[in-house]
UniProtKB/TrEMBL annotation:
GO molecular function: catalytic activity
The name this protein goes by in its record: Glycoside hydrolase family 57 N-terminal domain-containing protein
CDD domains registered for this protein in UniProt: GH57N_APU
InterPro entries: GH57_Enzymes (IPR052046), Glyco_hydro/deAcase_b/a-brl (IPR011330), Glyco_hydro_38_N_sf (IPR027291), Glyco_hydro_57_N (IPR004300)
Keyword presence, Ubl conjugation: no
Organism ancestry: Bacteria, Bacteria division TA06
Superkingdom field: Bacteria
SUPFAM superfamilies: Glycoside hydrolase/deacetylase (SSF88713)
GO biological-process terms attached to the record: carbohydrate metabolic process
Keyword Phosphoprotein: no
Keywords: Carbohydrate metabolism
Length: 712
């Protein structure tokens, strides 16, 4: 009986969260994973030359590595590099708020000084208790703990973990080593591929859900009753281009075209398979559930452990289906176990599969396919010992062998046939993680609107080739799966508001490039996840004078109050623009007051204004201009189509911003629920939003409001 072939595929991807306005990256995760998982995985594998594997390197990740290597920045990097003694109070607040974003158990707790700083932040609830030495140590610890086991072999880096208290020279050492690690990633994997130990596969360039680009109606194959966007997004040519660009980029970087494809999130369909074959790809991989739902006839227990062939309109393509249980054990379970015991458990399971899948001389294959970067934060040693024990055991076992996908297929095993491929992903064999919820559908509507407008502009009078290329690139970026991952209720991140801003900014850039005004709905936040907790609720009807100055404490002391937390800062400015939002009402009007951290005259000079979104029976945008000063009301339909714009209410804006709008203008009446979001904007760019991941909620008052809310 031939040995069981084990095909590991490690998927490495970081979203392309680049700010189109500044050209800088918003989050630091490419740098962080470069010094940890990306370096560690290659280093451990190099110790075991008989272990062959496949690494899926997404082009948009490789592009970010290239750009960082050429000097790209992110806010975290800039504030890490700045001398601690020169940091402003706002910058220190950003550092104390954000430089603990890592795994507590495996990255903070084991390091005494870092743990002490974390405890101080939690006890003191702010940056005021951090002196210059504390801030410098935090700058360095944040970057240092992301150095994985491979880079800790450097004596200079190892010494820093023992030192704990740092100087500016230590910081420069850490940042220099980090920058070098980023530059080394592509050559490291290129060398392993040249030696034949790894195969590098690809994904469509910006990591889109390919079947949904081809036709969002495919989402109904798994969920026939799914509520889809009104506008049908159907652009198989975009899916084709994302694949072709990936192949071209991969070829430039690694010297030869890729043979294999990991479709983002394992998302496949019959048309996607045909596009992959047409792009010259020989194989692709997806989840076991896709196999089970593609086979109409009975399948036996060995089907999962064989390569399959699918005939497409552009020729055949081979498919490897992953064993979900084995993949998830590495990704989610083994981190909590003793490394040798975990490795032994996996090897034992592989032997059980080998016995079950044995069929004479035909070699069986088991696909172990998972995220190659995120699991290692949960292993106490970054996964080093588990992987070493596992690779050593496989190397010594005559019944097991670790192969690349192409190595296995090159032996020309007799492949089983899949007649028609089910459209689904590796998450519950459906696409409902990325489409179907109101927020997700709103994002697809916005994307479809920009795509349609671009197509119409091309058909009408054409575009210069460079403008067309740039506009299409913005579309391709906006098609990435990651935006839709964070919309809806499936997942949560403290950065969701930032992601939402970036997504809408990408689409706005399409309109700007083609010389068309962006639709007003692109200024409306899509993310509206939850009720924010105000410091106090309204307790009485109010009647402020609206002179734009803080004339009396009593004018607003019975209104609701939302104070912007320090951790809800901005991605564009040091510190925040807004400090407080007051909201109140009488039976005729809604009253709002915005207190800024800066002089309103300075904001006016910079062209900064405010917008208030009132979400009730209708979706209303109130444009608050500091230069006029006026309030313009614009009603938006659920599809984002603007209605007529008109001036409403009364505005005072001198020291503070305060205004009213009639309930009738807002199309609201007593008892209606109201949701409010406040943003600061400059031209089209949204600078800040409050609440960041939700809204302020209350009801339009009725005549008995004061009776029911009276307090002695």
């Amino acid at each position: 009986m031939p040995p069981l072939s084990i095909a590991f595929l490690w998927h490495m991807h970081q979203p392309y969260y680049k700010d189109p306005d500044t050209g800088d990256y918003v989050l630091p995760w490419v740098r962080c994973h470069a010094t940890k998982g990306y370096t560690d995985m290659a280093a451990v594998l190099a110790e075991f030359p008989d272990i062959h594997q496949t690494f899926n390197l997404v082009p948009s990740l490789l592009l970010q590595l290239e750009e960082y290597g050429a000097g790209a920045h992110d806010r975290f990097l800039e504030l890490s590099a700045k001398p601690a003694g020169e940091l402003t109070r706002d910058e220190i607040a950003f550092i104390t708020d954000n430089f603990f974003m890592c795994n507590w158990e495996t990255m903070i707790a084991p390091n005494k000084r870092y743990r002490e700083l974390h405890g101080r932040r939690e006890r003191a609830a702010g940056a005021n208790s951090f002196g210059e030495q504390d801030v410098r140590d935090l700058q360095i610890w944040w970057n240092l703990v992301w150095f994985g086991h491979a880079l800790r072999q450097d004596p200079a880096i190892a010494a820093l973990f023992d030192k704990g208290w740092f100087d500016e020279d230590d910081k420069q050492l850490v940042l220099d080593r980090q920058a070098q690690a980023v530059r080394d990633i592509v050559p490291l994997y290129r060398d392993l591929a040249a030696k034949g130990q790894i195969e590098i596969s690809t994904s469509p360039f910006y990591h889109p859900i390919l079947p949904l680009l081809c036709d969002i109606e495919l989402a109904r194959m798994a969920l026939p009753n799914m509520q889809l966007p009104r506008t049908r997004f159907k652009y198989p040519e975009d899916a084709r281009m994302q694949l072709n660009r990936a192949v071209e980029y991969h070829t430039r970087l690694f010297g030869s075209p890729p043979r294999g494809l990991w479709p983002p999130e394992g998302s496949v369909s019959q048309e996607v398979a045909a596009l992959a074959a047409d792009a010259g790809l020989v194989w692709m991989a997806t989840d076991q559930d896709i196999l089970f739902r593609s086979q109409r006839e009975e399948i036996d227990g060995t089907d999962l452990y064989a390569a399959h062939r699918l005939e497409t309109s552009h020729g055949p393509i081979s498919i490897i289906f992953r064993d979900r249980q084995l993949s998830d054990l590495i990704g989610f379970s083994y981190a909590r176990n003793e490394p040798r015991a975990a490795a032994d458990d996996l090897v034992g399971r592989l032997h059980q599969i080998s016995k079950k899948a044995a069929s004479g001389a035909q070699p069986a294959i088991v696909g172990i396919i998972l995220d190659g970067e995120n699991p290692w934060e949960y292993y106490s040693d970054g996964g080093r010992d588990f992987l070493r024990f596992l690779y050593e055991a496989i190397s010594r076992d005559p019944e097991l062998r670790a192969v690349t996908m192409s190595e296995y297929l090159s032996e020309d095993p007799r492949q089983r046939v899949v007649k028609n491929l089910f459209a689904g992903s590796w998450i519950a064999h459906s696409f409902d993680t990325w489409i179907g919820e109101p927020e997700e559908n709103a994002a697809w509507e916005a994307l479809a609107g920009a795509r349609l407008k671009l197509a119409a502009r091309i058909d009408a009078d054409g575009l210069a080739s460079d403008v067309l290329d740039r506009a299409m690139d913005e579309i391709y970026i906006a098609e990435a799966s990651d935006w839709f991952w964070w919309y809806g209720k499936d997942h949560f991140s403290y950065s969701e508001a930032t992601f939402d801003i970036l997504f809408r900014a990408r689409l706005a850039e399409v309109y700007r490039l083609i010389g068309v005004d962006a639709p007003p709905h692109l200024k409306v936040p899509i993310t509206k996840k939850g009720v924010a907790r105000p410091q106090r609720e309204p307790t009485s009807l109010i009647h402020p004078k609206l002179e734009g100055v803080d004339t009396s404490y009593y004018e607003w002391n019975l209104a609701g109050l939302y104070v912007v937390p320090a951790r809800e800062g901005t991605m564009h400015r040091s510190g925040g623009i807004v400090r407080r939002i007051y909201y109140g009402f009488d039976l005729m009007n809604l009253y709002l007051r915005i207190d800024a951290n800066q002089d309103l005259a300075l904001l006016r000079e910079e062209g900064i204004g405010f917008a208030v979104y009132v979400l009730g029976k209708a979706e209303i945008r109130l444009q608050v201009s500091l230069s006029s000063p006026t309030i313009r009301l614009l009603e938006l339909t659920p599809e984002g189509v603007p209605g007529t714009e008109r001036q409403v209410g009364k505005l005072g804006a001198h020291e503070i911003v305060e205004f009213y709008v009639h309930w009738t203008d807002l199309m609201l009446e007593a008892g209606d629920e109201v949701k409010v979001i406040v943003t600061a904007e400059k031209e089209f760019l949204e600078l800040e939003r409050w609440p960041r991941n939700g809204y302020i909620r209350f009801q339009v008052p009725g005549p008995d409001f004061e009776i029911t809310h009276w307090r002695a």
